[in-house]
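Input for the complex:
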Amino acid sequence: MSGARERLSFDARVRDALADPLLKVAIDRTTGNARTKRAAAMAAWPGFSSARELGRDIKDHVIAHLDHYLVQFERNARASGAQVHWALSGPEACDIVVAICRKAGARTVTRSKSMLGEEIGLPHALQEAAIERVETDLAEHIIQLAGDPPSHIIWPALHKTREQVAELFHAHHHDPGTLDSIEAMVASARRELRGRYLAADVGISGANFLIADTGAVCTVTNEGNAELTTTPPRVHIVTAGIEKLVPSCAHAMAMLRLLVRSATGAELTQYTTFHCGPKRAGDLDGPAEFHIVLIDGGRTRMLAEGLAEMLRCIRCGACLNHCVVYRQIGGHAYGSVYPGPMGSVLTPMLDGLPQSKDLPRACTLNGQCQEVCPVAIPLPTLLRGWRDRIWSTGLESVTVRQGFAVWRFLALHPALYRQASAMAVWMMAWFARGGWIARMPLAGGWTRYRDMPRPPRRPFIAQYRRRMPRP
Amino acid sequence: MSDARSTILSAIRAALGRRRGGSAMADEVTIAAEAEHLRARADATRPDRLRGGAENAFLERLVSPAVAATAERVASLSDFPAAVRRYLTAQGLASSVALQPHPDLLALDWSGIETHGQIGIDEPVAVGLALGAIAETGTLVFHSGPTSPTLFAFFPTHHIVAVETGRIWNWLEDYADAFAGCAQPRNVNLITGASGTTDIEGTLVRGAHGPGWLHVVLFGSAAPSPDRPVATDPPHFTSLDNVK
Amino acid sequence: MLQDSSRESAGGPCVGLFVSCLVDAMRPAIGFAAINLLEAAGCRVEVPLQQTCCGQPALNSGDLAGARQIAQHTIALLEPFQYVVVPSGSCAATIRVHYTELFHEDPVWRARAEALAARTHELLSFLVDIRGWLPKQVALPASATYHDSCSGLRELGIHAQPRRLLAAVEGLSLRPLEGNATCCGFGGMFCVKYAAISNAIVAEKAQSIEATGAELLLGGDLGCLMNLAGKLHRCGSRVRVFHTAEILAGMGDGPAIGEAT
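Predicted:
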């Protein structure tokens, strides 16, 4: 695909997003709530900055010994009766999941929200295999009804206002009742999904943490849908990225403090569950088979290619909620599973840089994402890293490169620079009316939306020379 | 499949080897020592809120708007059925509950309440016994097993749970440490308030898919006292067999 | 590498003023205000005439080779001074934070970059933190609100200093700005490359500024201030925009950004 077309498509997506007034309302409502609650949680937690350093160090420790922890986790998971599978890529992981479903004779699977599932394309793979997929997380349920991809990693239906959700439920639910409040919408979804849990043959979940010393898989939810998804069916399948490990349950606890406060401002989600193996002798419920699919999907490449810090990410979404760009364009404009700052770092690795070169550049490098990140990922630095690669691999346009070459030449030759800037301000003054320039050739990006102050008659250095002649 | 395993592990070792600049891989003892050091650092990062003692802190957290459960104290577990009756009456609920098949619960006198051992997906009320609780977050702890099926905590609309005051850990890590090195149950469920969702506009609504109401009955303590000291010797179970 | 002591003995430290390419081309008043303030704070000010740009546009665009060349030019130019002061948080951060990163594989230049970084300061933080200076007998009866530019705030920790300085201006009342630490959408090349997104960000920011009811908007980075002033003017706002240095130097009764002289 040509670079120009990709560029156009990002611009087109942005145009659509900015033209949608409801989208902005929806984004502001959810991210506004999230920022307020997170700020309150952090204000009540003086230990945050040291906890954040600890979170970073725990993740770095695991990544530095990732092979050790993966092998330890696998050994303990197997000992608990889990079946552990390994997949190099998303398609390979989907094949494994579909094969398990087929072997179980599954016609219907319930799924508890997992961004990794979206990353590997599991919804599509299940559809291809003619296996019915029932999303049980409320937000995933909403976007499944709407046929939308997720637009946020914590709130996949963030782009929907409550009014739009009510419309969807009216159209699709069997017994919607009066959907005049968010409470009524939640109740309608509860009624709609209740029967589906018991009818499912397989339940699929993600993993927030993999506990190396027990082989357990930790999931966190507020709704309780994860346990309703994974307990009644005969088979439970976990898909997990290989970076999700922590040494022990106690380490997971330290990470949970950071994760939940950063995501929703709560101290702990309503349900934090450690799943360890299949149903035991005497158990009254639980799956007979418990499968864990460990997925690389580019993570070993991140380790090898300077993106190890990104493997710290615990998918809390705080960087999205605080990103000025995300807050204007929402998740879909990014055109990838992971939006916002963390997505702009991950997507070029997952989808390829040529297809996603706008993402690292559509950022003001203001640093707020790094400031709120609970594991101190230097997101602006990693985004700059992609910009470096865009430049060094020739993905930058010739016009821009030539423009920079001229500017650099001038910057290295002060005398010429002085002449050029004197000429530039003189020419700019031509377009000024009073103190402002409302339109000017080559400055459309600026003057389309804002006025440009009229430059002075002479640049500072020229004026300084005149006023303060050197001896 | 095993190909993917060895490819992934080799790729990790190659990448880590380069990052380490050729120096040897750390041995298990070194890794474990590093992990233990990280674990110890967590103690200094915890929010400070146990001044009134673990029991008071737990209750305070449990009924705070953030967790929004309801709670009461009774003298002993034998007072639990009366507490359940009071709750059912107060909420205008029928006197019929799914009773978690725990011997301590089954041994109680449930007269006046119809109890059953099977739980349905639309069960109005389930009555259970938690393994313990965590003061820091107002969390109940359940370990799945023959006497504690997982779904008792997820199917009902109202979940009424008894927990013993002597089984309240101060911090999340204290719970984790208590079971470190023990055989794990199939499910550990840490439950902090009734089910909820913020999926529509970030607004919290209770009763998403799990229970809409959580009522906790704390038993086995002396009369409540605000200056009860912090439990210095938190409960520690050396093996699951010690758990009632 | 330090300048000779005879220069310092003439009274106060010798400061090299790096005005930034934007101040040079678009708002010389900030450069002159900086000279006044530094002299008032007991410094001898020199303006190295060979200065051009710190190289930030190249750095942020991935042109590392170009950024390195410009950094070398700037390091060589500025290293004779005891202090280097820049009336811009983002240009100061480029020299203080990013020059050393550019030369992480070049020990000689890295050492030079580190030495310069240690002596380079943003103007407002230099006045407060290094010189312990506050304005005396500067009066401006007006209400103002303050935008914290991101580089200064997050890369250099500049937050309290401008407020302390402005609190010493007689008659000036500072009003809190909702989202004062939220980016204005300038972002250098970002604002023209992704103009529509940048516009949406700055439009929201302009509304918050209007909502304060303040007469003046102040800040410490000309790029952000031009973005904000240009948007405010396009929207018909009467809010006047100045660099903080201009106010401190008693130039608050002169023309604001975009006002004809």
